[in-house]
Amino acid sequence: xxxxxxxxxxxxxxxxxxxxxxxxxAAIIQHGWEVVGIEDGFDGLLTGRCRQLSIDDVRGIxxxxxxxxxxxxxxxxFARPVEKGGKIEYVDSSNEVVExxxxxxxxxxxxxxxxxxxxIAMDLMNKGVPIVGVPKTIDNDxxxxxxxFGYNTALETATDAxxxxxxxxxxxxxxxxxxxxxxxxxxxxxxxxxxGGADVILIPEIPFDIRKICLAIEKRxxxxxxxxxxxxxxxxxxxxxxRVVKNSADATHAIERLGGVxxxxxxxxxxxxxxxxxxxxxxxxxxxxxxxxxxxxLGSRFGVKAVELVDxxxxxxxxxxxxxxxxxxxxxxAIKQLKVVDPDGEMVKSAVNLGIMLGx
Length: 360
Ligand code: F6P
What we know:
This protein has 360 residues and is α/β, with parallel strands linked by helices. Helix content is 36%, strand content 21%. The chain has helices at 16-31, 43-47, 94-103, 115-125, 151-172, 187-195, 210-222, 261-272, 293-311, 331-334, 346-353, and strands at residues 3-8, 34-38, 50-53, 80-84, 87-91, 108-113, 131-135, 174-180, 200-202, 228-233, 244-245, 256-257, 276-281, 317-322, 325-330. The protein is elongated, with a radius of gyration of 22 Å.
């Protein structure tokens, strides 16, 4: 009987369980294969933590956030941190992982992950492990797919938060800054900002000018709007400014931050405007919760497509969404560079035409 493995790697996001369920159901119902669920991403392959998944195991998980398999940002088999004499050294344990996959009788591996997991997947492919990828990230920064699952739910969460911030900002005549996730991409900030009626949106793709933000807020106040809403992507930074690495829990997931861009902008505005300013960092709330209808459907379709690709021996490929259709592309193409917002593109122009200030 054919056996396939499935794992979820990197940061979690809503819809992971829909993909796992899709993989398990399609593999068992369509082909009668066995599915091994690997726990905590690639880490489970190093330590051998895995379990067979039946249809019963995936019952009722569709509306659940997170991943029933667990995930990890660590566990890169090619750079496993080990402590030696009080120091951390990185060792290559990839041969053990390849052996583990063989001994478990896993004929192909479905990797549900983002850029980081796919880089590891490609290196394992080069060692002979047949892999199919499923693109996951709330940041929506993966090339070669119109959208990743998880992004839509994160957007809903951010837009809902903006709606709630609006009423309190208005009551107190305050400037409210909401900092959202997205790493180096401004997708969450831009789309939630448009949907939530933000006055200013700051994204990494457009370095901002703090004086111009002050002018925009003053102009609003002079026109009778005594409050303003700013959405700042965590990766946004001032023109000519320095980006410094802050609180990166581990090197593989390092993100350059301005010591908190929300905090930075708040301090600048408080010093330059005679207005009350507050910051809200939305944080990991954006990664949690029940997936939206869109993400449940996309995740399920991705899971089914991944099984189809395994069946057709189309390894080294990733499922993707193009228009309304599910397709597949080479993983290599998808990880060449990050997909970021075009600063001169339609979405930015539309925001400007709506009167939103983009920081420049
Ligand atoms: O890539 C997803 C993401 O949530 C980013 O938006 C964010 O910068 C990062 O992960 C946070 O990582 P961690 O969970 O390690 O704090």
